[in-house]
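Can't paste images in this forum, so I'm doing it all in text. The chain is below; anyone willing to post the predicted structure tokens underneath?
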Amino acid sequence: MFIERTSVGLDVHARSIAAAAIDGVTGELVKRRLAPAHDAVLEWMTRLPGPVAATYEAGPTGFGLARAIRASGVRCEVAAPSKIRRAAGERVKTDARDAVLLARLLRMDEIVSVRVPTVTQEAARDLVRAREDTRLDLMRVRHRISKLLLRHGHVYYGGKAWTGAHERWLRGIRFDPAGEGGGTRAAFDADLEAVDFAVARRDRLERAIGQLAADSEFTPVVARLCCLRGVSTLTGLALAVEIGDWTRFTGASIGAYLGLVPSEHSSGEARRQGGITKTGNPHARRLLIEAAWHHKPRYVVGATMRRRWDAAPPAARTRGHEGNQRLHHRWTRLAARNKTHTVANTAIARELAGWCWSLATLTD
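Text version of the structure:
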């Protein structure tokens, strides 16, 4: 509930900030264009009639400004851009108008806030996302190599690609200088070098992730999440840092937050459902979709799962075992109803999100 006297809207950009303040007593509207420095924003806000509350949209500039404002004792809300209501007929959009709109929405309690992570949580998130970027870079360069070789008639038949045998085969490929030219050889060597660099970078990041998962504030949550099939240390840490505060949700609402529920457009007696909404955190959603595939095969407690259970409390082991049984049973039932595998897997991922919430919020 808005109780402050002055509401401040900030339209934050890399090189400037458009600011607007509305005085709830006098009705005065003040507009300023500020430098994109925390000190400049705080100095301007101290001259406003207090108490003051501020808001700005989440974006590429991050959460540093919100932390600085909160540290000064001023309430600051970071607004979810997709939840900001704009007039349908509005055809003029400027930074100043956006700042005024934010100030008005804040005063009317119409701001849907996103969670501001701590500095430690944001650092861990940067680490796991850097590993994800490296994975994508590695996948792209491997695709480039395979397509280049296919164009020149070099196809590997010796088993799975990107194994030791496959890489030895790659190193032994010879190009005809007369027919294919030295340019093909140079491009091939450059892509092989890029693969080596990407693999080394990925391994270095995975070691750092392993160390963080083993000794940090996220360790207890990661240990509990790893009691589920498909959730390794990397996936568990990524889910822990992407979700952050699990207590914000329930077992039913976390699926909606991650965009794993069907979209719907119903009117009157007609009810129409479409694909999943794909709202919320795309990184966490992708991890759950990938983890859900592991629940399709028959459930057997192997050595790897037992090692993960040994690192978790007894209650988490019991809950994880129940979840693994339940999710495999759900896969079997959906397959028996001839559901498309991708549709079935998405349903399993939605339920898996609930089991992850159950384990993350479990008290020992």
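The longest helix spans residues 181-214. The longest strand covers residues 6-12.
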